[in-house]
Amino acid sequence: MIRVIISGFGGRMGVVLRSVIKDDPDFADFEVVAGFDQWDVEEDGIPVFSAPELLAESEFRADVVIDFSNYAFVGGVLRYCGMTKTPAVIATTALGEQEKALIKETAKHTAVFRSANMSLGVNIVAKMSQLAAPAIEDGFNIEIVETHHNKKKDAPSGTAILLADSINDALRERKEYIYGRHGREDAPDLSEIGIHAVRGGTIPGRHTVMFAGPDEVIEITHTVYSSKVFAIGALKAAAFVIGKPPGSYDMNSLLGK
Question: What is the model's pTM?
C-alpha cells in the first residue's frame, strides 16, 4: 500500500485526487493517510494539519506527498519533505523564484517531482512541439493560445509557459516571449513566441501551439474535459518517484526523453 499525504486536501484538486484514489481500481494500492491545508481538522477519519513542519517532528510518516495547494503553502510542504526525506510531487503552479530555489534545495535530500501540468497529454504535446519546431523555426511564426474558465487566476497559464519553454529548448536560437499584442503595431517577428490567454465561463483548459508559415498552418491542440486527468498524472508521478534517489524529476523523467 502506498501511503499518501495530500497537500491542498480540501481544495478542488485535493477533492478530485481523493475521489480517484477511492473509486478508480487502477489506484487501489494508494491510501490517503493525512492532509495538509489551512486548518487543523479531521475528515472521514483522515487528519489534516495546517503546519507541515510540525508534523515532521512526530513519528507519523508517509511514502509520498502530493501537493496541489498554493504557492504560499509550498514552502512548508517542501521543508516537511526535506526533513523527513519523503518524496514529493509538486503540482502547484505559479511558483516564484523562492519556491523554485527551495525545490532545488529539497531535492538534495529527497526525490522531488515537479511539473507545471500533470496531464500526460499536455506533456506529449510539448514533445510533439519540440520535434516540429527545429525543422521550421526559420520560416514559421510560433503562437500559443490558452483558454480557461473564468476562475483561473494566473495568466498566461503555467502550461503555456511550459510549452513555450519546451519549444525554446529545442531551437537553435531562443525566442522572446510576447504576451498579447495590444499596442504592438509591428508585424510578428520570427524571433518571438506569442503567448495569449483567454478566460470565460466554464471553458475547459485548452492549449494550442500554432506554427504559421507561408500558406500553411500546423496546430497541435490539447483539451482537458475533467480535472481527473491531473489527478491521474500526479498519482503516476507519485508511483514513479517513490524509491528514487534524491534529485529533481519531471514528466520527461516519467515519459522518457
Answer: 0.90
Catalytic-residue membership of 152: yes
Residue of 109, 152, 228, 244 with catalytic role: 152
The half-sphere exposure of 229 on its side-chain side, counting CA atoms within 13 A, is 14
pLDDT in tens, 22-63: 999 999 999 999 999 998 899 889 999 998 877 777 777 899
From the candidates 148, 175, 222, 236, give the one annotated as an active-site residue: 148
Put the strands of the sheet holding 206-213 in their side by side order.
176-179, 192-199, 141-148, 206-213, 216-223
Task: Say which CATH class 2-118+227-255 falls into.
Answer: alpha beta
Domain range summary for the chain, segments of one domain joined by +: 2-118+227-255, 120-223
127 catalytic, yes or no?
no
Cell of 142: 510560433
